[in-house]
Amino acid sequence: GGAASASLEVRLPAAAPAGGLSLARALVAPQGGRVEEEGTPGRGALVRITLAGPAAAPAAPRPAGAGATRV
């Protein structure tokens, strides 16, 4: 199965400042998430922020010589 994700939807009024979306993208993108916007000028917008689930734990290091074949 894939990693879980979390989403948040926020309805913004038409008079909301635009700089917030740039900030949200700058914070969310490096974490593997995304910010989507659906809107109509003068009517506001629906902003959807999706965060990726926790990354899979890295594989444990193999002990020295593990898996080595003697000839």
Features:
single chain; 71 residues; alpha+beta; three-stranded antiparallel sheet; 1 helix; 3 strands
Structure description:
This protein is α+β, with helices and mostly antiparallel strands and 71 residues long. Helix content is 14%, strand content 34%. Strands 1-3-2 form a three-stranded antiparallel sheet, with helices on one face. Strand 2 and strand 3 form a beta hairpin. The longest helix is centred in the N-terminal third of the chain and has 10 residues, at 19-28. The mean pLDDT is 77.
Structure, briefly:
With 71 residues, the chain is an alpha+beta fold. The protein has one helix at residues 19-28, and strands at residues 5-12, 34-40, 44-52.
